[in-house]
C-alpha cells in the first residue's frame, strides 16, 4: 500500500503539479509582459510617456508597477518550485531505493532528507510573507496596521493592570 501511495501521491501527482507550476509561472510572466507592452504602446501613441519625459530609463516598455508584478509572481513561483524540489527528489529516491525509509537500511539518510524537505516547506511559507511585504503596498500597510493594533492592545492591557495595582 505504501508503494502505491508513493507512486501516485508522492511522485506522479507531484511531478504533474511541478510541471504545471513551472508552465503557469512561465506563461503568466510572458502574458503580463505582453499585456504591459500593449498597454504601454497605447499610452505612448496617445500622449507623451511620463517616464520618458522625466528622463527615467525605459524598462523594455514596462511601468514600474508592471515590473513589480512580474518580479513578484516569478519570485513567489520560483521560491515554491525551489522549496518543493527537495521533496520531489526525496520521494523519487524513496520509490527507487528500497532501503530508503524509516527503520530501514538508509534510515539516517532518510531522516536527514525528511528534515531538509520539511525545512524547505516551512521556509517557503515564511519567505512569502517578506516577498509580499516588499512587493505589495496594500499588504504592507495592512500588516503594519495589524502589528500596530496588537501593540496598542498590549499597551492598553498593561496600563490597565498597572492602574489596578
Automatic annotation (TrEMBL):
UniProt-listed SUPFAM superfamilies: Family A G protein-coupled receptor-like
Key words of the record: Membrane, Receptor, Transmembrane, Transmembrane helix
Subcellular location: Membrane
PROSITE patterns linked: G_PROTEIN_RECEP_F1_2 (PS50262)
Protein name: Chemosensory receptor b
Gene Ontology cellular-component annotations: membrane
Residue ranges of domain G-protein coupled receptors family 1 profile in the record: 1-132
